[in-house]
Design goal:
This protein has about 260 residues and is α/β, with parallel strands linked by helices. The protein has a single domain (about 5-250), classed as Rossmann fold (3-Layer(aba) Sandwich), CATH 3.40.50.1580. The protein contains 7 helices and 8 strands; from the N terminus they run αβαββαββαβαβαβα. It has helices spanning about 5-15, 35-45, 70-80, 135-145, 170-180, 185-195, 220-250, and strands at about 25-30, 55-60, 65, 90-100, 110-115, 150-160, 180-185, 200-210. Strands 4-7-6-5-8 form a 5-stranded mixed barrel. Strand 6, helix 5 and strand 7 (about 180-185) form a beta-alpha-beta unit. It is globular, with a radius of gyration of 17 Å. It starts with a helix and ends in a 9-residue tail after the last helix. The mean pLDDT is about 95.
């Protein structure tokens, strides 16, 4: 008889090229292969899954990083498959578009919630229920942002399946009316599917573009600048957050509704 657990046990290695036993209990999630490469270089550990849809690396502290790709379907997939590894906490290191004047490129956002505009999460939880992070995990991330001499913003993220929307005035006006601080393609899905699977999930987002103004729309050149100036710090804060949780042996469980 097919079971969800059986599928996850079989498919996590299939998607990542990584045996289940090589996964740590605490996981960094990212959309970008260079985060995995940098992580592996920092800890002199191998990268698995180079010929698979998702790549991973695991350090000696028991922290695993996974590049799951872009978009809410991929986000849901990795959160379903991580039940095979008995993950105790996952932190998303994503990039987002800043939508408020108080946000600028290079700023960090710790989302307090996310609007479920992507649709994928509706398969896991009633659409009326908000997408919320594991706040204990967010607390640890907050402490590490400050420990690295940085500040962060909080607010609601809008998660969408639309990648090319910057031209659409109607969509832009809707974002203004919603009052959201940022926009991305994964955060709400990760929160909801993490909650569904009892994997405590948080997010530390890096503002990579300012899409509400023409000069702020992401380009290849601007994205390269963000990578050069901010990605290393983003990754370091994420690693230190999970190492701190492991060192203190803290529980970061979701509360059940």
């Amino acid at each position: 008889m097919i079971s969800k657990q059986g599928l996850a046990d079989n498919w996590l290695p299939r998607y990542t090229g990584t045996p289940v036993e090589r996964f740590g209990e605490h996981v960094l999630l990212t959309n970008f292969s260079n985060y995995v490469t940098k992580f592996a270089e920092m800890f002199d550990c191998p990268v698995y899954g180079k010929d698979k849809p998702m790549q991973t690396a695991t350090n000696r502290d028991g922290v695993t990083i996974v590049n799951f790709g872009i978009g809410s379907p991929n986000a849901a997939t990795i959160m379903d498959l991580l039940i095979a590894a008995n993950v105790r906490g996952a932190l998303f290191l994503g990039k987002c578009g800043g939508l408020k004047r108080s946000t600028d490129i290079g700023h960090f956002i710790l989302p307090s919630a996310a609007i479920r505009g992507e649709g994928t999460s509706n398969d896991y939880l009633d659409p009326a229920v908000p997408a919320l992070p594991a706040f204990e995990l967010q607390k640890f991330a907050s402490e590490q942002v400050h420990a690295h001499g940085q500040e962060y913003r909080t607010g609601v993220i809008y998660t969408t399946n639309r990648r090319v929307w910057e031209w659409d005035d109607g969509f832009r006006e809707r974002l203004k009316k919603l009052g959201v601080i940022g926009i991305d393609m994964e955060t709400a899905t990760l929160f909801v599917v993490g909650w569904h699977n009892r994997v405590p999930t948080g997010a530390l987002l890096l503002v990579s573009d300012l899409p509400m103004v023409p000069e702020g729309v992401k380009t290849e050149e601007s994205d390269r600048m963000v990578t050069q100036n901010f990605v290393d710090l983003h990754l370091e804060i994420g690693i230190d957050t999970l190492v701190d949780i492991r060192t203190r042996a803290e529980q970061v469980k979701h509360f059940r509704y």
